[in-house]
């Protein structure tokens, strides 16, 4: 089937985790809001529906008669259908658990530049953002990334669950790429203790479908409207 992905057209954001899975799977999909100007209006209208299973926010995926929201939920669905998750129930639940932990980390990244409220501009909360980022760089990021490093070291293979890549590996690639963009100085220090995670990032980047995607116009560049934003004041 042809999937329809609904997400904001000018940022990577949470939708990028879904895009990476679709690209790795070689799936037939259309990024609706990027395809035409009416795409965003269609997306908003679907979220405002009173019946069916409308999503609270993008990303969400249309798959036949299904409309699936929440990044981890979408990946749970795609992983089982495109060989990006283990075949056993225990394995699928473990990868889903990892993705939920990644989602927690992504939220903490977002809160470094929007610690007070999402309705406020970064410029309106600079002081709080600077304070939040210090704690993030020194405590939270090392804790999360160190956890993933430990799992990779004990996974018994080149990927977090062993020999075969899953959507969690694709998401960890995105985490490393995003952190390098948002906190280049901080990540340079952290990477010394993360050889497994950096190696995983490089292996994912070299996969044929992912490499083709990263080299294409389909990959939206990081920018200061997405989750991973680079502000020098937050990376000191």
Stretches where pLDDT is under 50 for at least 5 consecutive residues are: none
- Nearest-integer average pLDDT: 97
Number of strands: 4
Tally of contiguous helical segments: 10
Query: What helical percentage do the residues reach?
Result: 55-70%
Strand content: 5-15%
CATH topology of the largest domain: Glutathione S-transferase Yfyf (Class Pi), Chain A, domain 2
What CATH architecture of the largest domain do you see? Up-down Bundle
Looking at the chains present, what oligomeric state does this protein adopt?
single chain
Which structural category do the helix and sheet elements fall into?
Answer: alpha+beta
Total domains: 2
Tertiary shape: globular
The largest sheet, given as strand count, sense and whether it forms a barrel, is: 4 strands, mixed
The strand line-up of the biggest sheet is 2-1-3-4
Termini, distance in Å? 47 Å
Order of helices and strands: EHEHHEEHHHHHHH
Rounded Rg: 18 Å
Question: What do you see in this structure?
Answer:
It is a single chain. By secondary structure, the chain is an alpha+beta fold. It has two domains: 3-81, Glutaredoxin (3-Layer(aba) Sandwich); 89-234, Up-down Bundle (Glutathione S-transferase Yfyf (Class Pi), Chain A, domain 2), CATH 1.20.1050. Helices cover 56% and strands 6% of the residues. It contains ten helices and four strands, in the order βαβααββααααααα. It has helices at 15-25, 32-35, 38-47, 71-81, 89-113, 126-153, 167-182, 184-190, 195-206, 208-214; strands at 3-6, 29-31, 60-63, 66-69. Strands 2-1-3-4 form a four-stranded mixed β-sheet, sandwiched between helices. β3 and β4 form a beta hairpin. The longest helix is centred in the middle third of the chain and has 28 residues, at 126-153. It is globular and about 45 Å long. The termini are far apart. The mean pLDDT is 97.
């Amino acid at each position: 089937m042809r999937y329809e992905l609904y997400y904001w057209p000018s940022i990577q954001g949470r939708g990028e985790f879904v895009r990476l899975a679709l690209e790795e799977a070689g799936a037939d999909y259309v990024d609706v809001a990027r395809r035409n100007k009416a795409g965003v209006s269609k997306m908003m209208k679907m979220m405002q529906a009173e019946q069916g299973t409308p999503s609270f926010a993008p990303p969400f995926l249309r798959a036949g008669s299904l409309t699936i929201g929440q990044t981890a939920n979408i990946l749970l669905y795609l992983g089982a259908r495109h060989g990006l998750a283990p075949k056993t129930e225990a394995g699928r639940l473990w990868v889903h658990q990892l993705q939920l932990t990644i989602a927690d980390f992504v939220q903490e990244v977002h809160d470094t530049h929007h610690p007070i409220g999402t309705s406020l501009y970064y410029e309106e909360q600079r002081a709080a953002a600077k304070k939040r980022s210090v704690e993030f760089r020194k405590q939270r990021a090392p804790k999360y990334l160190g956890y993933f490093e430990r799992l990779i070291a004990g996974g018994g293979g080149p990927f977090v669950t062993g020999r075969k890549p899953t959507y969690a590996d694709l998401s960890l690639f995105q985490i490393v790429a995003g952190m390098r963009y948002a906190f280049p100085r901080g990540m340079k220090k952290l990477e010394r203790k993360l050889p497994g995670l950096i190696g995983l990032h490089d292996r994912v980047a070299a996969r044929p479908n992912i490499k083709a995607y990263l080299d294409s116009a389909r990959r939206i560049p990081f920018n200061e409207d997405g989750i991973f934003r680079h502000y020098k004041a937050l990376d000191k």
